[in-house]
Amino acid sequence: KAGVTQTPRYLIKTRGQQVTLSCSPISGHRSVSWYQQTPGQGLQFLFEYFSETQRNKGNFPGRFSGRQFSNSRSEMNVSTLELGDSALYLCASSSTDSYGYTFGSGTRLTVV
Amino acid sequence: GNSVTQMEGPVTLSEEAFLTINCTYTATGYPSLFWYVQYPGEGLQLLLKATKADDKGSNKGFEATYRKETTSFHLEKGSVQVSDSAVYFCALSPSGDSWGKLQFGAGTQVVVTP
Lengths: 112, 114
Prior knowledge:
Order of helices and strands of chain A: EEEEEEEEEEE
Low-confidence stretches of chain A: none
Structural class of chain B: mainly beta
Largest sheet of chain A: 7 strands, mixed
Mean pLDDT of chain A: 94
Largest sheet of chain B: 6 strands, mixed
Oligomer: heterodimer
Number of helices of chain A: 0
Strand content of chain B: over 45%
Number of strands of chain B: 12
Shape of chain B: globular
Largest interface: A-B, 25 and 24 residues
Strand content of chain A: over 45%
Helix content of chain A: under 10%
Order of helices and strands of chain B: EEEEEEEEEEEE
């Protein structure tokens, strides 16, 4: 059974650019969540999609957005990148509230 | 709002020692509770979970019991190995439609020496 796949694994971008990260959940999982992990702030929730609808949203500026497709694959986009956006971005998928989330290996974004 | 507090690290132990990582939470309703582990350069792996009060989650020698009266979910392992060196995260999943919004603790780094 394939796990959660995130692409790309590493990314280097320049300030002001935009970036799109991709996440393919485990087959059958309808919930996909995104998290930002930094040494200073730890793991912070970005947003969660369930059946193509954004169901929950964290406290991030509007530069951070996402979407989920009909096959449950998800993308997140960050526009006008800032140095502080450098982080490990983790995607996770789940099928139910008691199942627990399965995480991908993450995308390491570096903004220079 | 919901929050998770776990003991700060690093926790340094000798192989075969007993490990405890304290975790307490604040939440309304009946959240599910999880322990995740992160190895260097990797994502998070689900270690164990408990979905209701008095449930005991266990996996790979690790155990944690959901204590509603003390709002705690402490992680324990009787005899650690060098391969258990990692960062451990306690997390809660709120009840209701917010279950997809995991709240994590700050993480506890565990270092096991031979």
